[in-house]
Every structure is written in C-alpha cells, then in structure tokens.
Automatic annotation (TrEMBL):
<protein>
    <submittedName>
        <fullName>Peptide deformylase</fullName>
        <ecNumber>3.5.1.88</ecNumber>
    </submittedName>
</protein>
<keyword id="KW-0378">Hydrolase</keyword>
<dbReference type="GO" id="GO:0042586">
    <property type="term" value="F:peptide deformylase activity"/>
</dbReference>
<dbReference type="InterPro" id="IPR023635">
    <property type="entry name" value="Peptide_deformylase"/>
</dbReference>
<comment type="similarity">
    <text>Belongs to the polypeptide deformylase family.</text>
</comment>
<dbReference type="InterPro" id="IPR036821">
    <property type="entry name" value="Peptide_deformylase_sf"/>
</dbReference>
<dbReference type="Pfam" id="PF01327">
    <property type="entry name" value="Pep_deformylase"/>
</dbReference>
C-alpha cells in the first residue's frame, strides 16, 4: 500500500467500514475463535513473556504454522497476527496491511526472528485495538514513524527492509506481542469502540497523527533479538516511566 497521509486517512475510514479487528477494531463483547486472550489466565504466560526464536531445523515445517496463522487472521478480519496469539510461543508474525484497503486480498508478509535495527526519531500516535483484547477499549500509543527490520521469511531466507506508514505501525504492534504484553499496559488514553469509530469518521486525522505519546515498544533495545531483551518492566510501573 502507499504510505502517505492521504492513504492513511482512507485506511482509517475503510477500516471501520469493513470492521478490521486486529490493531484497529476490537470485537465488542465477543472473543474471536482460536485467538488467545490477554484476560484468560490460561494464556498469561504465553502472552506476557518473550517468545522463543525459531530454530533452523524448524523452518522445514513452518509452512503449517504460517497457514494456520493466516486462516486465523483472515477468519477474524485481522491485518496482522503473532504466533503466540494462536498458542505457539515462537518469534513469528504475519502482516497484511493491504487488507485494510481491499478486504478480499490474501497477500501477506512473514517475519521470523525479527529484529528492529533502526528507528526514526519521529513517532506516530495511533488508536490500537487487538484480536487478543476482544471487547477491550482502544488505547492511544506511539510507534516509530519509520523502522528497519531484519528477519527471515517463511522459508528461512534472511532480509532487511525499511517500513513506514501503516506497515510500520502493524509491524510494531505485532512485535509487541513477541516481546510480551500489549498496548493496554502502555496507553494513557482510551476510547470505546463507538468513540473510536466516531473519531475515525469525524476526525480521521486525529486517529493517526504525529505526537509524543507513550511508546508501545518502550522496553525494546534496538538491534537485539526478542529473547535477548532485558526482563519487561512490571506493567504497574510502565506509565510512571513513560515520557509525558
């Protein structure tokens, strides 16, 4: 997709028209099938701890997992999903931001053992929701405007690429899953589904804007693998450590 302001605003409007759930729209009071939920005690360890790296010998059978992730993402109208959201504690996520413009597209990108190697000083604030936070409010958090990611694709082939716009936002949302935790722990401002929908229709430029809000990946050290990061800060202390 094109990464410019006009396209972003179109994305916000279309997202609410088509009901995208992962990142943008949360399912009101309904827990999506096959998606692990943050408030389910059975998945606390899985969703709140760093995911393990995919080992070289595991790539041969990775196609089955990728297929399962895609089906779960498409079935729940998502535009991104991490492996731990379907019960697999491995460093892999999929993004499909083009579905925000054309919900019939089946295109997607696979990121295995991703590392964010570079980020811009500029940040973008966005109202996040999540398939694993069904029925929960949206939270406004910041992500880096541009990032460079080194990872492997589903076949194990390494790549390094820069991203901006919605792709960068979705990648950082999914990367948060791999680190453990979610936007609800970081955000200071929240909106209900109806309030977020109204904002997207009446003030789309406010749904995504440059700002200095709390950073979603506040605890990530650039250039280090997910499993090499320092232990996450206790969620109760996160807001105290965020810049106002």
């Amino acid at each position: 997709m094109q990464n410019n302001s006009a396209c972003w605003m179109k994305w916000v409007v279309l997202a609410f028209s088509f009901g995208f759930t992962d990142l943008v729209t949360a399912v009101e009071g309904k827990k999506p099938e096959s998606i692990c939920q943050f408030d389910d005690a059975a998945y606390q360890s899985l969703l709140f701890s760093p995911s393990a790296p995919v080992e070289q010998e595991e790539f041969a059978g990775l196609g089955v997992l990728i297929d399962k992730m895609c089906k779960a993402m498409w079935a729940n109208d998502g535009i991104g999903i991490a492996a731990n959201q379907i019960g697999v504690h491995k460093q892999i996520f999929i993004i499909s931001p083009d579905r925000s413009i054309d919900p019939s597209t089946l295109s997607y990108r696979v990121f295995v053992n991703p590392v964010i190697t570079h980020s811009s000083q500029e940040k973008i604030c966005f109202w996040h929701g999540c398939l694993s936070a069904a029925g929960k409010p949206f939270g406004k958090v910041a992500t880096w405007k541009t990032i460079t990611v080194s990872a492997c694709d589903g076949s194990g082939k390494p790549f390094s690429e820069s991203f901006d716009g919605m792709s960068a936002i979705v990648i950082q949302h999914e990367f948060r899953h791999l680190l453990g935790g979610n936007y609800l722990q970081v955000a200071k401002e929240f909106k209900s589904m109806e309030e977020a929908r109204q904002l997207a229709k009446e003030q789309p430029s406010s749904f995504m804007c440059e700002c200095s809000g709390p950073l979603l990946l506040y605890d990530y050290q650039l250039g280090l693998p997910v499993d090499k990061q320092k232990k996450n800060t206790d969620p109760s202390d996160i807001r105290k450590k965020q810049k106002k």
